[in-house]
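Review form for a predicted model. The reviewer records the input and the model, then writes brief findings.
Reviewer: anonymous (R2)
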Amino acid sequence: MKAAWDFRRSIVSARLLAELAAEYGVPLDTVLRNTGITADQLRAPTAEVEARQELQLIRNVVQALPAVPTLGLIAGTRYHLTTYGIWGFALTSSPNFRSAVNVALRYLHLTYTFNRMLLEQDAEETRLVLDDHEIPDDVRRFCVERDAAATLTIQRELVGHAAPLRSLQLRFPRPSYADSITRLFGIEAQYDAARNVASFEPDVLDQPLLQANAITAELCEAQCRKLLSERRSRDGVAGKVRDRLLHRPGQMPDMETIAAELHVTTRTLRRKLLDEGSSFRALVDEVREALAEELLRTAGLSIEDIAARLGYAETSSFIHAFKRWKGQAPSVYRAHSAARPAAKTS
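Model under review:
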């Protein structure tokens, strides 16, 4: 069964970890042992590696530095927005933190995470969950700490400060370096928890971003879609589901219909999508969002007509969904898109 983290990724993360290991005196041949990654590949800016190659590199570094228990925390603070290429720029130019988080999760396969990341919200708090169950035991703690610290670093760079945590729960036992975790996250963690969860105030996602720019955000997200499409195998189950959804946007088929067309049960389809790090609902959202953007930019249709074409019974439901995707109303998005040619010639 393919793990959710098993996707191709840029060489940048592997290079960052190799450079960190070098600072502690670990030879490059030790870092690259059994990874299949060459020194030349590590230096190539456009190179890509399989997730399992980076995971082996992490294993090598962790095993070489047992005297540096905070290695995951140290590494995570070096994953700046610029480390992620176009994904980082897409987040930076988003109108607010909510939109940035939605973009981040939608294109999570353009990052270096090994955790399955989920956003949960209710009236009392906003929660970011790092599901580490598919990560091998010997590198699990490193990956959790690295990804958590990287997430904190990104959040600080987006809004200019760290959002205060209401609580931080971690699945592993309290380590000897617990004080380092407290200092980094600004709160004492609860250990031996059921899940890895960072909880924030409910309005944390409403924060404006320092470098918000609607036109840049649109361009960057288009590049994210293109890059993700290039990396994904169109032979995957998610690709087959996506294609079928795209062909019938006005009468969006349900999961049962798609499963029947693929000659599998809904349970099997759900499991296969989960194996690829996706879900039926996420794919429906992805297709609707892409089509909504296209219709708003190019078609002279009313918001009501676009909502109907995308299979929404109520226009208000479409507007709510679009705000969730983009952090702005469809009418505002259309106005910005219409102004875009002028911005190019000014």
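Findings: The first helix runs from residue 12 to 23.
Further findings: Residues 341-346 have pLDDT under 50 and may be disordered.
Recommendation: see findings above.
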